[in-house]
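seq as requested:
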Amino acid sequence: MGTHTFTIPPVRTGFRWRINPHHSTEMDDDANAWAFGLFSDDPRVPAPVHADNYTTWAALCFPDVDSDLLTRWCRFNALYTVLENKQEALYETSGAGSAERLWERTVTLLFQQSHADDVFAAGDWGDGLPRHNLTAAMAIAEKLPEPLARYFLRRIAHMAQAQYHEDHAIRSPRMGWGEYLEYRHVNFGVPLFTATIPALLERSLSADEWESTERGQLDRLTAHHCCLVNDLYSFRKERDDRNGKKTHVQAVSVLQHVYGLGIQEAVNRLAEAIEETERQYVALRSRWARTAQADEYCDRLEDISAGNLRYHQTSPRFHGVGFEGVFTDGELQVTESARG
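struct tokens:
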């Protein structure tokens, strides 16, 4: 065992963050209590940890939604964090088969619900983890127009598939950079956020604007920016958490594999990739957003990118319990095991 010191470089951005004025510690506590209460009889689910709830993330990415919708997002994020913990526990204690079946059931139910004759009517979701997932998802879907609700549920299904791949299929960073981005931007979940943007606009996008390849690429660049920010600021935590137990597969390790880099060089390359993604987004927005509604749509995408960056620079989840303030750059250490 040993340690390796590296430096997180500052990430330059032109996006401005805002936080929802309805957000409060009481809202966080409510979301945690609700999510953990669903698994209160399961000793494999960790006790509530404020740093792990991702509720402030929702408040930063959705600075303008009303209190009711923000509460639903906070509960969804808190629940999904618990679900991931439970899946990890199942994988470690019951073997891959048990966890795989739960993922498969969840994905199937989400797709079935998205194609149901009445998308808002509860189906036969069974008990346990899949039912909890559908319940939280439907709490948001029911606030959306029908076509968007169906789209939103399918985005969750795709995320659950990607999460399954992370837990059970992806065993090493031996993949191409583009291949990694394709899997990772779905797995991180930001497409769920972007899927609901049309319901937040004062003016609706035209059918041509919604179906345009440019709009889809702006969504994808937003998701890329967010997942790479997560990989940058969570690198130390995930490396230390998984060291010696599970292969560490994220942007830094993939960049090391693809380009033959050391940790510091890969971290620097990752920070550059985040800034390049923003530059690509800004250039594409300037070409596509030619109407008031398209401009507003891009503003909401930038709320998500800015809020995500702010969350990762301020959350104790990435900087340690009790952390207060803003970590934009600085020196960190990771633990190295004998296996490297």
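The longest helix spans residues 213-242.
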